[in-house]
Design brief:
The chain starts with 6 loop residues before the first strand and ends with a helix. It has a single domain, classed as Aldolase class I (TIM Barrel). The chain has about 290 residues and is of the alpha/beta class. Helices cover about 45% and strands about 10% of the residues. α1 packs parallel to α2 and α9 packs antiparallel against α11. It has a 7-stranded parallel β-sheet. The chain is globular, with a radius of gyration of 18 Å. α4 links the parallel β3 and β4.
Length: about 290
């Protein structure tokens, strides 16, 4: 485990133009503004960053830009995702050479994999780098979920320090905490209610919505750290509507539409994803106005 990774860690969008060029100036400004609002880390190339639609050159540019913008003020935990183990290892090494502080590893699959094959993928990434690794499981998008038993075994690797879980199963998180609490930090995704995860001993959350509500997200984290649970739940109830909207529509498209509303020209979601229509964008704009 590492005390450096904690708190609110936004999953960054990847601003990109119609010709496939990363809008580095927009990404750098977003990173700087998020740090100014008090976030505790940054994750390029997460789900919100549309990593599955980017080539290696675009991924490297995104990591480089984020690391340079952070300038050591907060850790950068870059996303690593591959269908092959070799490609994932290559990405992890790229993260290290770019100056990232850690990697967040997820498995992409085409053919179904056994538990042992899934476990071997994450162990190979952890063996390939000196960077701390946070493993990420998202059964909504993966054909191979990480079972509690596999997570417990992975937690014994010295480089594997945390887990981001997007299962929506809070009981599963408690089981993981009970098995791995001395070895593995647990982080929520936007599919979980962060306050509940913090009550269970979680260290924070990686989430796309934190890109557009950083002040409220940081305030919620601070209330949780102070164990002001009544106040935390009151704030949690106010901002939960944002997560509900993003669960209804495409996540990256929602975050990009919200950031465009806030003055960041991040561009459209990468095809074949579609841009939100006017009615959908109006729903997001109204939710942002309600939060102030």
């Amino acid at each position: 485990m590492t005390d450096r990774f904690k708190g609110v860690i936004p999953y960054l969008v990847t601003p990109i133009d119609d010709d496939g060029r990363i809008r580095t100036d927009v990404l750098a400004r977003l990173c700087d503004d998020l740090i100014g609002h008090g976030v505790h880390g940054l994750t390029p190339l997460g789900s919100t960053g549309e990593f599955a639609y980017l080539n290696d050159r675009q991924r490297r540019t995104t990591i480089d830009t984020t690391v340079q913008a952070a300038n050591g003020r907060v850790p950068v935990i870059a996303g690593v995702a591959g269908t092959s183990t070799a490609h994932a290892i290559e990405q992890a090494r790229t993260c290290a050479s770019a100056g990232a502080d850690g990697v967040l590893a997820v498995l992409e699959t085409y053919f179904p994999l056994s538990e042992r094959e899934t476990e071997a993928y994450f162990l190979a990434i952890a063996d390939s780098t000196d960077l701390p690794v946070i493993i990420y499981t998202n059964p909504n998008f993966q054909r191979s979920n990480l079972t509690v038993e596999v997570i417990e075994r992975l937690s014994r690797h010295p480089n594997i320090v945390g887990l981001k879980d997007a299962s929506t199963n809070t009981g599963r998180l408690l089981s993981i905490r009970n098995l791995c609490q001395d070895r593995l930090d647990v982080f929520a995704a936007s599919s979980h209610i962060p306050t509940f995860v913090m009550m269970l001993g979680g260290k924070g959350w990686f989430a796309g919505p934190a890109c557009i509500i950083p002040r409220q997200s940081v305030a919620l984290y601070e209330l949780c750290v102070q164990e002001k649970w009544n106040e935390a739940m009151s704030l949690q109830a106010r901002i939960w509507g944002i997560s509900e909207i993003f669960a209804k529509y495409n996540l990256a498209a929602c975050i990009k539409a919200a950031l465009e509303e806030q003055g960041y020209p991040v561009g459209h979601p990468i095809p074949p994803q579609r841009r939100l229509n006017e009615d959908e964008r109006n729903v997001i704009a109204a939710a942002l106005r309600m939060l102030g």
